[in-house]
Design a protein that fits this description.
It is a single chain. By secondary structure, this protein is an alpha/beta fold. The protein has twelve helices and ten strands. A hairpin with a 6-residue loop joins strand 9 and strand 10.
Length: 309
């Protein structure tokens, strides 16, 4: 198969786009498309400060690389979660993230959860008994709290995450199965800033996971290949496998599902009536927004951990 642009041998074939490109033109095409999506969804401007949540994986490191190539003011944030499980997952991901930043002369903020709060994610999970000692729920609460805290405290205009299309459609499928309308209403390429909550954006939301893997490999980005050890058997991975089978039979099905959802969301289909809108409160302990009239989930979780330690 030949590159559509120059006619040389193609390195990447994207059936969903009916597009094949060589290495050079693929590595030009993907950042160009990213810039187009940033503009289309009004994610951020050239002069705004962007904080990229980086995990050491292909998506977040590739996103940081792309934003740097596009000339944005993008710094990184790495959260040390203390996940070991015999393979040193957190140590490996931190090493690769720091190596990436050092090689490119980029600014990286590192927050170690254990050093900051006294507990790593597995310990917090065990102490608070959330999710029957599965750390995923605890991890989500901690990451959301810390990413927003650092973005706010250090004066960043926007927080960017490396969620790709496969991530987005797997979550969307799960929420559709259970008709989690409130969660569907909040799933979007951009979540605006709101009373102390940073603006959150997903510049890679329309790129397939395979495209991001190809970008990382062709750019020579060294990333952690292993999935988080606690993700084994998760429903998200199960939904991804289902969607991969559908995509294999119908190239472009994932993208069509996501784009049609965004159209429906834009039309207001998933917006709750105004009289049922969820009120928000400021946590008296940390100041972040919460749906609870009192302390937020993070602060209540930390208090519970302290009482059981």
């Amino acid at each position: 198969m030949k590159c559509r642009t120059c006619g040389t041998k193609a390195a990447v074939n994207m059936r969903q786009h009916k597009l094949a490109l060589c290495k050079q033109h693929f590595l030009e095409w993907l950042p160009e498309q990213t810039a187009r999506f940033i503009k289309k969804y009004r994610m951020f401007g050239q002069h705004e400060k962007v904080l990229v949540a980086v995990s050491g994986g292909k998506d977040s490191l590739s996103l940081w690389d792309i934003l740097h190539r596009l000339g944005y003011q993008a710094d990184g944030l790495y959260l040390g979660l203390g996940i070991d499980e015999g393979i040193g997952y957190s140590d490996q991901s931190r090493r690769l993230t720091e190596q990436f930043a050092r090689q490119r002369g980029l600014t990286l903020h590192v927050v170690d959860i254990r050093s900051t709060y006294g507990y790593d994610i597995p310990t917090l999970s065990a102490l608070t008994h959330r999710g029957h000692n599965r750390p995923c729920a605890v991890c989500g609460v901690v990451k959301r709290h810390e990413m927003n805290r650092i973005a706010r405290d250090l004066g960043y205009d926007v927080l960017a995450t490396g969620h790709n299309l496969d991530d987005e459609v797997s979550v969307l499928l799960g929420n559709t199965f259970s008709w989690q309308v409130e969660l569907m209403a909040r799933q979007a390429p951009v979540l605006p800033a709101h009373d102390g909550l940073a603006r959150k954006v997903k510049p890679l939301c329309r790129f397939y996971e395979k495209e991001m893997t190809a970008y990382a490999l062709l750019r020579g980005i060294e990333y952690i290949y292993e999935e988080c050890p606690f993700s084994a058997g998760s429903t998200t991975i199960y939904y991804k496998e289902m969607l991969n089978r559908l995509e294999n039979d119908r190239p472009g099905a994932k993208l069509a599902f996501y784009l049609k959802f965004l159209e429906a969301r834009e039309s207001g289909l998933f917006q709750p009536p105004a009289e049922f809108a969820q009120p928000m409160y400021n946590c008296p302990s940390c100041g972040q927004l919460t749906q609870y009239e009192g302390r937020c989930s993070f602060c209540r979780m930390m208090e519970k951990a302290q009482s059981h330690s």
